[in-house]
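Input sequence (223 aa), recorded before submission:
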Amino acid sequence: MRIDIITVLPELLESPLSHSIMKRAQAKGLLEIHVHPLRQYSNLKHNQVDDYQFGGGAGMVMMLEPIVNAIESLQAKVQYDEVIYLTPDGETLNQKMANQLSLKGNLLMLCGHYKGIDQRIRDHFITKEISIGDYVLSGGELGAAVLVDAIGRLLPGVLNNETSALTDSFQDNLLAPPVYTRPEEFRGWKVPEILLSGDHKKIEEWRHQESVERTKQRRPDLL
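Predicted structure, token format:
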């Protein structure tokens, strides 16, 4: 998979995308991530990419031309399955969406900034708008990092144990069950006996029931 990201602040993406599982995915050649500074596509003095709103109002708006230049330049080289805009008023990211996007070949992401982007970009170039939650960040860079991580970890071969992602919270509209590791007892706090039984069928039944109960208590909306 290839993911291209257009951003005003490429520095914000350096660390999240160059460590841990994302680093491993790229090292294995399973994921390509290319970050493109938007200012290099500006034809204006000082590489300007924002301007005042028509009609007045607080906050600057990301300009049309630099973004068009960036998108069209990249589309001339790569055929994208989705052109994604990270924005608070987009569709809320969930596991089902991450699963679907992980099956794509090439994705282009545009990080919003300031008061947002000129609406004409959304009307003519964007194919999918995504929010990572009902709150506002300083820009779309952190949202893009979250989205890349959610997608990248699902690619076959990225995780050492590929079944791990299949048992994560939300995969079956259930929260994950409680997990334990050594020691078996600490300060009198014991691991449930069923997990030490070696009976894998009963263990799976226990885990499923715990997932259902946890979901009922914490996220009944999922049921």
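Checked by second reader. Residues 200-218 form the longest helix (19 residues).
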